[in-house]
Write a structure and sequence with these properties.
two-stranded antiparallel sheet, globular, about 375 residues, TIM Barrel, about 30% helix, binds ligand FNR
């Protein structure tokens, strides 16, 4: 069996090791929703990862749900992402962009004038988002009309094309955490009566169409997907039969030969055993690289790869505070704790100022 530090070919992605930087929203984008200048250093510092998945990045203006998150729909954004991908590649790393539409997890003040958030439903989530006014309840959404969905799918496709223009190695479609795609998947949220609601075949339709469109544009081997079958994030609620839903969702994607499937086990950033779910059943339905995430420590990650249970392990919070995480995992070195007060928004503090082991040694 391979180890966590062995290379892996995932579709078209040739990865140096099996440690992945999980997508992490940091709310530091510049005006115009352009990735911050500091993001170049931030991602370059973390280029030792086998693969970096960027912070969630909106595919179009109405896909935004929080203050100062970056987009990938304007030329200026693409140019800024190009500087970031160049910096990561210069350090020998690989980087994909996480393509995001928040759906109903948004607030009118973040959207183009006159827009309201769009979703599978017109029912609001009982949760808050961060705006210029601080934490505010999310706005009441409107249900997307059936005839609006082809343009939505096209927006994902266009974003994937721009990701290639920006020099990314591929994309990860964000199908997790109660955002737009999850809002269509789960019957706890989707109350539609058209071809995108009702039976599993219909609720998985948007995901299927998005994955087909993105794969057609850039190749399945450069396309990954993130799912979180039982997370309660963003007031999404549990599906009435998550196992059947996600088994079908994954099975239907088989012909696309996706590079990887990234599964959040349990509640994202919370308990791993929040609800029963057999992830092995998903894996049996997927041929590409199998990426796991959620509260992995060093031993769990070593075991997951050594036992063959996973091909790749994604780390979120540990990568915030340990830019050289791969080295620390390899050497069994001490991990720096992450300061949650600087997760969202701000400048260099808690972003680019966590030292590597070498920098720490120089200071000492
Ligand atoms: C996240 N997470 C997350 N997930 C995602 O799919 N897209 C995103 O943009 C973000 N943003 C984000 C920001 C911050 C500050 C945190 C802490 C988390 C979830 C993240 O990718 C991961 O699933 C969880 O953090 C659990 O993994 P760890 O941290 O236990 O390794």
């Amino acid at each position: 069996m391979p180890t966590l530090f062995d290379p892996l070919q995932a579709g078209e992605l040739q990865l140096d090791n099996r440690v992945v930087m999980a997508p992490l929203t940091r709310n530091r984008a510049a005006p115009g929703r352009v990735p911050a200048a500091l993001a170049e250093a931030y991602y370059a510092q973390r280029a030792g990862a086998g693969l970096i998945i960027t912070e969630a990045t909106q595919i179009r203006p109405d896909g935004q749900g929080y203050l100062d998150t970056p987009g990938i729909y304007s030329a200026e954004q693409v140019a800024a992402w190009r500087r970031i991908t160049d910096a990561v590649h210069q350090r020998g790393g690989k980087i994909v962009v996480q393509l995001w539409h928040v759906g109903r997890i948004s607030h009118v003040s973040l959207l183009p004038k006159g827009d309201v958030p769009v979703s599978s439903t017109a029912r609001a989530a009982h949760t808050k988002t961060f705006t210029t006014q601080g934490f505010e309840p999310v706005s009441v959404p409107r249900a997307l009309r059936t005839e609006e969905i082809p343009a939505l799918v096209q927006s994902y496709r266009d974003a994937a094309r721009r990701a290639m223009d920006a020099g990314f190695d591929g994309v990860e479609v964000h199908g997790a955490n109660g955002y737009l795609i999850d809002q269509f998947l789960r019957d706890s949220c989707n109350d539609r009566t058209d071809a995108y609601g009702g039976p599993i075949e219909n609720r998985t339709r948007l995901l299927r169409e998005v994955m087909q469109a993105v794969s057609a544009e850039i190749g399945g081997g450069r396309t990954g997907l993130r799912l979180s079958p039982v997370t309660p994030s963003n007031d999404i609620g549990q599906d009435s039969d998550p196992q059947a839903l996600f088994n079908a969702a994954v099975e239907q994607l088989q012909p696309l030969k996706l590079a990887f499937l990234h599964v959040v086990e349990g509640a994202t950033g919370g308990p791993r055993d929040v609800a029963p779910f057999d992830y092995e059943q998903l894996r049996r339905r997927f041929e590409g690289a199998w990426m796991v995430n959620n509260a992995y420590d060093r031993q769990m990650a070593l075991d997951a790869v050594a036992s063959g249970r996973a091909d790749l392990v994604a780390f979120g919070r540990p990568f915030i505070s340990n830019p050289d995480l791969v080295r620390r995992l390899r050497e069994g070195a001490q991990m720096a704790p992450a300061d949650s007060k600087t997760f969202y928004g701000g400048g260099a503090r808690g972003y680019t100022d966590y030292p590597s082991l070498d920098e720490q040694a120089v200071k000492a």
